[in-house]
Amino acid sequence: MIPDIPENYPPPRPDFRAFRPPKSQSKFAYLLWRIQMWIEGTFALAMLEPWEKILMIFLTTFTLMATGIFRYLPQHISVMKGRAVYYLWGNESGESTVLQWLGRNSASSGTPMGEL
Q1: Residue 35 pLDDT > 90, yes or no?
Q2: Is the distance from CB of 71 to CB of 77 less than 8 angstroms?
């Protein structure tokens, strides 16, 4: 049996404390630890330092969000506009109805149609 390391010694290099299973007897904590080890082993995150892991997560999230915003959001807004027109006026070809309705409301308020 290996004796415990005295407290006054520096931590060993490399420090493998992050890869040890939790001391808690909780099955949920053990499950989370296993999932973390699976993800780190699958995507080679175990070789990265903590700040590099955070940077990788940030860059991945930013890339996915930017792709979604610039590539898919305009089409989604167009689809949602068509659905809103359908729900409000009963048909999808009701865009002219929407423009006429906006024109009537802007004319009654004194705002020219071109300024909307």
Answers
A1: yes
A2: no
